[in-house]
Recover the amino acids of this structure.
C-alpha cells in the first residue's frame, strides 16, 4: 500500500515570494504522483502529475514539482505567489494501475498581501 | 464541456434520517469515484465504478451506505440512517482511460453534509 505525508499543515507566505509545499510518500512499488488544489467550497483541480520521464514536472498556474525517488519526495514549488494562490493543496499517490489514490492531509497556503 | 456535476451542494439533516447525493460525471467517462472528505483531511475513496460495476467498495460502510450506477452514467450515494459522524463533504470524480487515463481524475464541487 501507499501513503502520503504532507509535512506542513499551514504555510503563510507574502505575495510575490517563493513557496515550497512538501510531500513525502511511502510505497513498496513504483508510483505515480499528483498535486491537486482545492479552492474554498470547490472540488479538487489537478495542478500537475508525474507519471514517467523528466523528474521536473510543470503544471498550471506557474507551479512545478520535482520527483526525487531516493528521498521519496514530490515537493511543489512556485517562484512567485499571488493572492489567488490561497487555497488547500493536496499531494496524492497511486500505483501503476491507477485504481487507488491516496491523498495527504493537505497544506493550507495563505498568501499575505 | 461541462464538468462533474453534483447535487445538492449543501444538505442539512437530523440524525437517523436518510440522505442521497447525486453525481453526473463528464460525458464519456467510464470510471466514477465517490470520496469522503472530512474537515482538514484529504479525500478518502468510498467506492469506484467501472461503467455500472462497483469494482472497489472495500471502504464503503455497507451497514448504512449504498451506491448505484444503474446505466453506467449517473450515480447516487445514499446514507440510511445518517449519524453525526457522517458530517463531511462527499466528492464525486470521474476519469476516462482515453482522456489522460485513470490517473487524471476530474472532481465535482462536492456535497457538504451536516448531520444535526
Amino acid at each position: 500500500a501507499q501513503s502520503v505525508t504532507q509535512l506542513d499543515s499551514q504555510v503563510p507566505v507574502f505575495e510575490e515570494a517563493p513557496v515550497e509545499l512538501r510531500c513525502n510518500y511511502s510505497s513498496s512499488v513504483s508510483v505515480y504522483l499528483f498535486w491537486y488544489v482545492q479552492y474554498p467550497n470547490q472540488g479538487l483541480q489537478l495542478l500537475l502529475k508525474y507519471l514517467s520521464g523528466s523528474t521536473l514536472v510543470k503544471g498550471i498556474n506557474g507551479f512545478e514539482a520535482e520527483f526525487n525517488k531516493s528521498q521519496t519526495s514530490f515537493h511543489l514549488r512556485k517562484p512567485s505567489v499571488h493572492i489567488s494562490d490561497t487555497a488547500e493543496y493536496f499531494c496524492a499517490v497511486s500505483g501503476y494501475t491507477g485504481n487507488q489514490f491516496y491523498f495527504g492531509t493537505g497544506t493550507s497556503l495563505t498568501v499575505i498581501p | 464541456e461541462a464538468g462533474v456535476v453534483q447535487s445538492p451542494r449543501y444538505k442539512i439533516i437530523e440524525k437517523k434520517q436518510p440522505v442521497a447525493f447525486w453525481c453526473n460525471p463528464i460525458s464519456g467517462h467510464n470510471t466514477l469515484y465517490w470520496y469522503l472528505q472530512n474537515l482538514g483531511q484529504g479525500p478518502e475513496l468510498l467506492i469506484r465504478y467501472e461503467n455500472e460495476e462497483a469494482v472497489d467498495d472495500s471502504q464503503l460502510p455497507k451497514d448504512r451506505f449504498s451506491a448505484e450506477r444503474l446505466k453506467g452514467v449517473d450515480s447516487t450515494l445514499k446514507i440510511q440512517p445518517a449519524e453525526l459522524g457522517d458530517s463531511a463533504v462527499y466528492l464525486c470524480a470521474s476519469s476516462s482511460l482515453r482522456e489522460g487515463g485513470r490517473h487524471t481524475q476530474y472532481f465535482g464541487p462536492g456535497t457538504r453534509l451536516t448531520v444535526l
User: Anything to note?
Assistant: Chain B has a mean pLDDT of 92.
